[in-house]
Amino acid sequence: MNRINPIYIVVLLTILLSLMIYKLGASKSELEENKESFKTTQAIALKLVSLKDVYADNVKIKQSLQRILNDASLRSAGLKTKFKATALSISAQSVDLKTLNLLLNKILNGAYIVESMRIKSVSRTKADLQMEIRW
Q1: Quick one: which of 110, 92, 13, 104 has its CA closest to 54?
Q2: CA atoms within a 13 Å half-sphere pointing along the CA-CB vector of 61
Q3: Against a cut of 0.85, is the pTM above it?
Q4: Do residues 132 and 116 make contact, with C-beta atoms less than 8 angstroms apart?
Q5: Which of the pair, 104 or 51, is modelled with greater confidence?
Q6: Does residue 133 sit in helix, strand or coil?
Q7: pLDDT digits (tens, 9 = 90+) for 51-103
Q8: What is the C-alpha separation between 106 and 125, in angstroms, rounded?
Q9: Are 107 and 69 a contacting pair, CB within 8 Å?
Q10: What is the distance between the alpha carbons of residues 110 and 31, in angstroms, rounded to a whole number?
Q11: Distances in Å between the alpha carbon of 1 and those of 4, 5, 9, 13, 96?
Q12: Are strands 113-121 and 126-134 parallel, antiparallel or unpaired?
């Protein structure tokens, strides 16, 4: 009665081994899920870095806006621009639609944050514009 049957020890070790194998499999699947989550997070981080490079460079944004506004056809349109510390306000009274189309194409195809924009038709060929671009 004082001796432990060796079969009990073998069964106990087999149960412990099975439990460890089960835990190992669960850990492997959790590791795979974490790897996929890491890859997704890394892809999002790369996208955010590239967006930050495009939208956060204030000097580059100011220079490109200045280049757009210095276009010969836009200079002669009578656009009133006001550079502030964190924004640019553009206003125009009775601007030609071709000029307005050129300006909007250049601004909307660029990487700018358009805070507000209001266009009001004055006639068939003229419109008023109020726009604010921030950086």
Answers
A1: 110
A2: 20
A3: no
A4: yes
A5: 104
A6: strand
A7: 888 888 888 899 999 999 998 888 888 899 999 989 999 999 999 999 999 99
A8: 20
A9: no
A10: 42
A11: 8, 9, 15, 21, 107
A12: antiparallel
